[in-house]
Design goal:
heterodimer, A: alpha+beta, B: alpha/beta, Rossmann fold, 5 helices, 5 strands, globular
């Protein structure tokens, strides 16, 4: 029998965490069933996009668990931020269209590659974007929305990257409060609609595991959440 | 018509896989029990095996170790289509590389169309 990593190390894991890990596995199954049913029926139904998004969220949670338990090593390597942001935008475009949201990637200037764990950064930006797509459409009723995946140099050796929108109520204070309320309150981020907070919190955990937690930030006149990543020193010498 | 031995524990997912694989022109024999699948492989000589690694009772890994231990099954292509990620697999199992698995697809991020393309590439390498 193959044991899941977190099950094998269950002695080190908080019982609630182990329970959530098992729950995420079990939750993934019905989503997989729906996904394969829709595909086998040749359906391009928008439900498929929602299911895909749910699965991505479960995957992001499982990645966070694996990193926290040192099952997946955080191998830091030089990564071009623009490539990650373009990849996420490409992946999320069908989902964003469902919410009448246009995704834009804005990388200011030529940015040196950063030193990060590429899968974690990709998933963090992905789940954060999906959450903000839903939150933005739930907060204000408009015909069209815009979501910006941006990056800019914030100091000589640090690049700030994140997701920016018109979502209200995301400040450093509300994030601090949400971190302490996670697992104890139904809506740790009160300004976000139900189902949108976990993406923000998972992205925050992944960013914390790599370098720094999410912080409130602004980019090209929009506000949102971003993390700071050091540039790759290896490539500075090239 | 190429024959696939499908080892998948979830009935609903298996039914959907059967539907698309048959539509793609394959004859599919679906089994939930790897032990029974070994007997089936002995009598029906599949062209390719598609297997999940998380199964009820016996695990998919045990099946693969036993399957590859027989000299006449060394070259039968195997496609893993699993809910177990590669990272989790590496953590749980050593020596997986020696099992000569032709393709590894992670279920949550692989569509059935991608799975079929992978099977086609393996069975008809020149046509792909």
């Amino acid at each position: 029998m193959i044991k899941r990593g977190y099950a094998a190390d269950a002695g080190k894991v908080h019982p609630m965490q182990a329970l959530l890990a098992a729950l995420s596995d079990d939750l993934a199954l019905p989503l997989l069933q729906i996904k394969s049913t829709l595909e086998s029926a040749g359906s391009s139904d928008q439900i498929a996009l929602s299911v895909e998004n749910g699965l991505q969220l479960v995957e992001a949670y499982k990645l966070t668990l694996r990193i926290n338990q040192d099952i997946e090593s955080l191998t830091l390597e030089p990564v071009a931020i623009g490539v990650v942001l373009q990849g996420v935008a490409h992946q999320l475009t069908p989902y964003a269209k469902k919410y009448a949201t246009e995704l834009q990637v804005d990388v200011s200037g030529r940015l040196t590659p950063v030193l990060t764990h590429q899968p974690s950064l990709h998933i963090a930006i992905q789940v954060l974007s999906a959450s903000l797509i839903r939150a933005q459409a739930a907060q204000v009723q408009k015909k069209r929305y815009r979501l910006l995946l941006g990056a800019h140099r914030s100091s000589e050796s640090v690049i700030s990257t994140g997701v920016f929108s018109t979502v209200e109520g995301l400040s450093d204070r509300t994030l601090r409060s949400a971190r302490s309320l996670t697992g104890r309150a139904c809506q740790p981020l009160p300004s976000l609609p139900p189902g949108a907070a976990s993406g923000v919190l998972i992205a925050d955990m992944l960013c914390t595991s790599m370098w720094q937690p999410l912080r409130a930030a602004a980019h090209s006149g929009m506000h949102g959440l971003a993390t700071a990543i050091p540039v790759s020193k290896q490539l500075q010498f090239v | 018509m190429p024959q696939i031995l499908l080892i998948e524990s979830d009935k609903l997912i298996a039914a959907n896989m059967l539907k698309v694989l048959k539509k793609a022109g394959y004859k599919v024999n679906w089994q939930v029990d790897p032990q029974v699948a070994l007997d089936i492989a002995d009598t029906e000589l599949p062209d390719i095996i598609v297997i999940d690694l998380i199964l009820a009772n016996h695990g998919g890994i045990e099946f693969l170790y036993e399957f590859r231990s027989y000299p006449d099954w060394q070259d039968v292509p195997i496609v893993v289509f699993s809910t177990l990620s590669v990272e989790e697999l590496k953590q749980a199992v050593s020596g997986f590389d020696h099992l000569n698995v032709n393709a590894y697809h992670y279920k949550p991020t692989t569509t059935l169309a991608e799975l079929i393309r992978a099977i086609e590439r393996i069975l008809q390498p020149t046509a792909a």
